[in-house]
């Protein structure tokens, strides 16, 4: 029965994607049909935004699922234990800096971290890597630097605040979930392709395909919700509070969550608000958005226990908000 339910859900998600692709390709023709002329143009905007998010995220999703599959096939539990420092606190620093070596954005990091934790990486270390990697990687730094050419310190500020915030969140997660399993138990975790263990390449490909379908459905649903928010969100409300040092960071963090723009490109979105919002609020957008957005929230609920995800959703915005506020007081 569980297999049938999974098949039905996967089929519905695939049909949804095919529908949006059809609308995207034939939108202009459909607008000339009398029935479709009654549909507000905003709904066609939803379709365009949805596909733009999907097309932007898919290359990174593919990267993420293949990295996850390689970890599953070639990285043993002993390797993880040797690489990660035994001291729970010292392990946080290299975990936060791993993003420099592994340029993975938030679209792909969740399945990778899930696999690492299953292989033996401490939960709080995995969380720090998950939150920091979409920010502390060369691709994101370069895009941020070029997006803010007139104020290049924004790129450095993003790296610094992202690093500090992820470390603090890791410490909080460690104190709350020390020694506890935060991963959701899935029935098929131990049933995937045992007959392929003799061939590492085939095993990697099978794991990648499984991971792609599991992750893809959350990406599609998350992209759809994000496109709805983008199409119908009244940005005039945000602009009215853009100059407030207290409320503007909150507004921009909410916008970062809703827009769900890949961290490799979100700096160009943020720079478009530079003339309206405070520098602190722009920084909040650049730090919080890659950590938590609609897309990876659904992935988190799919792979991690609900109690942990809800706790992370509460702690992360609070830590980022206070980190940005302190940075504003000192440097801005």
TrEMBL record:
<feature type="transmembrane region" description="Helical">
    <location>
        <begin position="87"/>
        <end position="113"/>
    </location>
</feature>
<dbReference type="Pfam" id="PF03773">
    <property type="entry name" value="ArsP_1"/>
</dbReference>
<feature type="transmembrane region" description="Helical">
    <location>
        <begin position="238"/>
        <end position="261"/>
    </location>
</feature>
<feature type="transmembrane region" description="Helical">
    <location>
        <begin position="308"/>
        <end position="331"/>
    </location>
</feature>
<protein>
    <submittedName>
        <fullName>Permease</fullName>
    </submittedName>
</protein>
<dbReference type="GO" id="GO:0005886">
    <property type="term" value="C:plasma membrane"/>
</dbReference>
<keyword id="KW-0812">Transmembrane</keyword>
<dbReference type="InterPro" id="IPR005524">
    <property type="entry name" value="DUF318"/>
</dbReference>
<dbReference type="InterPro" id="IPR052923">
    <property type="entry name" value="UPF0718"/>
</dbReference>
<comment type="similarity">
    <text>Belongs to the UPF0718 family.</text>
</comment>
<feature type="transmembrane region" description="Helical">
    <location>
        <begin position="125"/>
        <end position="148"/>
    </location>
</feature>
<feature type="transmembrane region" description="Helical">
    <location>
        <begin position="51"/>
        <end position="75"/>
    </location>
</feature>
<keyword id="KW-0472">Membrane</keyword>
<feature type="transmembrane region" description="Helical">
    <location>
        <begin position="160"/>
        <end position="177"/>
    </location>
</feature>
<keyword id="KW-1003">Cell membrane</keyword>
<keyword id="KW-1133">Transmembrane helix</keyword>
């Amino acid at each position: 029965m569980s297999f049938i339910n999974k098949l039905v859900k996967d089929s519905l998600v695939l049909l949804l994607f095919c529908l949006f692709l059809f609308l995207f390709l034939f939108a202009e023709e459909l607008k000339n049909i009398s029935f479709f002329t009654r549909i507000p143009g905003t709904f066609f905007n939803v379709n365009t935004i949805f596909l733009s998010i999907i097309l932007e995220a898919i290359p990174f999703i593919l990267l993420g699922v293949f990295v996850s599959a390689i970890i599953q096939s070639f990285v043993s539990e002993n390797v993880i234990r040797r690489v990660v420092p035994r001291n729970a606190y010292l392990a946080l620093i290299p975990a936060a800096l791993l993003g420099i070596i592994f340029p993975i954005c938030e679209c792909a990091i969740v399945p990778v971290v899930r696999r690492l934790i299953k292989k033996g990486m401490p939960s709080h270390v995995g969380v720090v890597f998950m939150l920091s990697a979409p920010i502390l990687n060369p691709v994101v730094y370069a895009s941020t630097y070029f997006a803010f050419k007139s104020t290049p310190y924004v790129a450095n500020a993003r790296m610094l605040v992202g690093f500090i915030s992820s470390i603090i969140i890791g410490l909080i997660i460690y104190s709350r979930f020390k020694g506890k399993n935060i991963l959701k138990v899935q029935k098929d975790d131990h049933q995937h392709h045992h007959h392929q263990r003799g061939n590492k390449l085939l095993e990697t490909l099978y794991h990648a395909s499984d991971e792609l379908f599991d992750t893809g459905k959350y990406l599609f649903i998350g992209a759809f919700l994000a496109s709805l928010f983008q199409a119908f969100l009244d940005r005039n409300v945000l602009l009215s509070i853009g100059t407030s040092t207290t409320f503007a960071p909150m507004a921009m963090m909410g916008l970062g969550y809703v827009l769900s723009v890949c961290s490799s490109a979100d700096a160009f979105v943020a720079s478009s608000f530079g003339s309206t919002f405070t520098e602190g609020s722009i920084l909040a957008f650049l730090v919080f958005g890659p950590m938590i957005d609609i897309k990876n929230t659904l992935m988190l609920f799919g792979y991690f226990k609900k109690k942990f995800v809800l706790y992370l959703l509460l702690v992360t915005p609070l830590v980022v908000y206070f980190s940005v506020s302190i940075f504003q007081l000192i440097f801005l």
